[in-house]
Amino acid sequence: MLMEFFLLFISGGFDNRLRENVEYLEELAEREGVSQRVKFITSCSTAERNALLAQCLCVLYTPMPMKPVIACNSWGPVETVKHGVTGYLCDPSPRECALAMSKFIQDPHVAEKMGRDAC
């Protein structure tokens, strides 16, 4: 599968006092030429969240039922994510996270299996 067919959604609890964080990430995506592939959802309803989770290939860090996790190999995730079994633990670099994401994109069945194994 080609990477240009995929989107990265960044969603979560948004604090209006920290709008500059989202603005920074939007500017970074623009500067890196990926702003058309990265979507920021600062707040969403439970139904919207569930729809996103149902359609996603994997979840980054936030463990969810039936979804593999991609996380940095430090602190809490090391205790809960089994590398190569329930997700991928990566060095904290954009390249490492991108490589882990590309593994799921190249073979979505791996993501499905890891999601099942995570339960």
Concise overview:
This protein has about 120 residues and is α/β, with parallel strands linked by helices.
Arithmetic mean of pLDDT? 87
DSSP summary: helix tally: 5
Overall body shape? globular
Total E-strand runs: 5
Strand content: 15-25%
Query: Radius of gyration, Cα only, in angstroms?
Result: 14 Å
Query: N-to-C terminal Cα separation, in Å?
Result: 27 Å
Give the quaternary arrangement of the chains: single chain
Helix content estimate: 40-55%
The SS-based structural class is: alpha/beta
The biggest beta sheet is recorded as: 3 strands, parallel
Strand order of the largest sheet: 3-4-5
Low-confidence runs of at least 5 consecutive residues = none
What letter string, H or E per element, gives the SSE order?
A: EHEHEEHEHH
Description of the structure:
With 119 residues, the chain is an alpha/beta fold. The protein has helices at 19-31, 46-55, 76-80, 94-106, 108-117, and strands at 8-11, 38-41, 59-60, 69-72, 87-90. Strands 3-4-5 form a 3-stranded parallel beta sheet. Helix 4 (94-106) packs across helix 5. The longest helix is centred in the first third of the chain and has 13 residues, at 19-31. It is globular, with a radius of gyration of 14 Å. InterPro entries: ALG2, Glyco_trans_1.
